[in-house]
Amino acid sequence: xxxxxxxxxxxxxxxxxxxxxxxxxxxxxxxxxxxxxxxxxxxxxxxxxxxxxxxxxxxxxxxxxxxxxxxxxxxxxxxxxxxxxxxxxxxxxxxxxxxxxxxxxxxxxxxxxxxxxxxxxxxxxxxxxxxxxxxxxxxxxxxxxxxxxxxxxxxxxxxxxxxxxxxxxxxxxxxxxxxxxxxxxxxxxxxxxxxxxxxxxxxxxxxxxxxxxxxxxxxxxxxxxxxxxxxxxxxxxxxxxxxxxxxxxxxxxxxxxxxxxxxxxxxxxxxxxxxxxxxxxxxxxxxxxxxxxxxxxxxxxxxxxxxxxxxxxxxxxxxxxxxxxxxxxxxxxxxxxxxxxxxx
Length: 344
Hints:
The chain is an alpha/beta fold.
């Protein structure tokens, strides 16, 4: 029985060509700055996002943490969405390690409202308040349903952040999904912010790693922070070569994942499932568990027994994610399995 994995786009496997590229990668010691593949990836990522420099990080969580360590100081305040990944799924690193005081903003539509930033700003010379120095945005926004925030809306919020004097960081784990969805160059988003982290290991299909991009000064601070938390690596070029291949070959095809997610949504809705209506939906599908179904675990287990892997990310809420390792046939079969399980 074929196993179809819709748990996340992090489960993708490197293609045969990507494996060949990795096997042939030219490597050196990245701590000394002489790993050619890592250097090439950093240069390309910086150019792609319109930034001066970039570094390879082990994960998106590490990339975001390095941004907070490099742009903030212990005791300062960070603004981030209450449903953002940095708030809900990065183990509180912004406070535990970077020492930042978080302030949650309403991001139910994928991004905070520009009008909400000033009231949340604590940089008001009040001796009792921590200075607010960082605004973290997310695009696409995972927990609100994979929303691809539009360039116009994104720019409005980022520019207000700059007006207030914040360092604006983008958790762009899936920023290329947003750029492909809206049919714009990724710089339509990255030109509006000071730093950006994006993942190589999700829809782009590399086996691991993320990039952090920003100014030369910012990246030099991030390199030292990366070393401090144990994230500096030696012959990282083997993984970096896969990331460079992914950036050069796998961005346009993200539209296929969006089309497959749309088809999956339509099939489930046709079968009576109340799929969450999401503006600018990309490669994620969310739906609430039916009240009559005994438990999330029972549902997930019943699907697994039929060859379908998916996640219940929160109580009574199911998520499926399309990616390069599932095709239209898999989508149709996944919908059929879900409807069968629900009917029973």
